[in-house]
Specification:
Oligomer: single chain
Distance between the termini: 17 Å
CATH topology: 2,3-Dihydroxybiphenyl 1,2-Dioxygenase, domain 1
Structural class: alpha/beta
Low-confidence stretches: none
CATH superfamily: 2,3-Dihydroxybiphenyl 1,2-Dioxygenase, domain 1
Largest sheet: 7 strands, mixed
Shape: elongated
Strand order of the largest sheet: 2-3-4-1-5-7-6
Strand content: 35-45%
Amino acid sequence: MELGLFSLSLSVKDIALSKSFYETLGFEAMPSCGSIEEKWVIMKNGQTMIGLFEGMFEDNILTFNPSDVRAIEASLKEQGVSIDVPVKGDSGPGHLMVKDPDGNTIMFDQF
């Protein structure tokens, strides 16, 4: 199963403050990947990526960006994994969400 790129999606209280903090750690906002005004931004430092999201979800989320989210959904269903948020539509961008045994949310987001 090819999971694609990995990032940690962080639920933040103040997007501007959080962006500034992660910039001190060497992260840079990726062009065309959100903004302070949109209340979300994707940042990168080397091969490490994080997403900062204000008011979009309650908990932090492990995020993978596969090239075929529908194949991952089919594989997970075949293995008996419960799907919390199924993929919508038959093609194009989409996302899928599951929880691990400890309740951590994992999102597979194809864009």
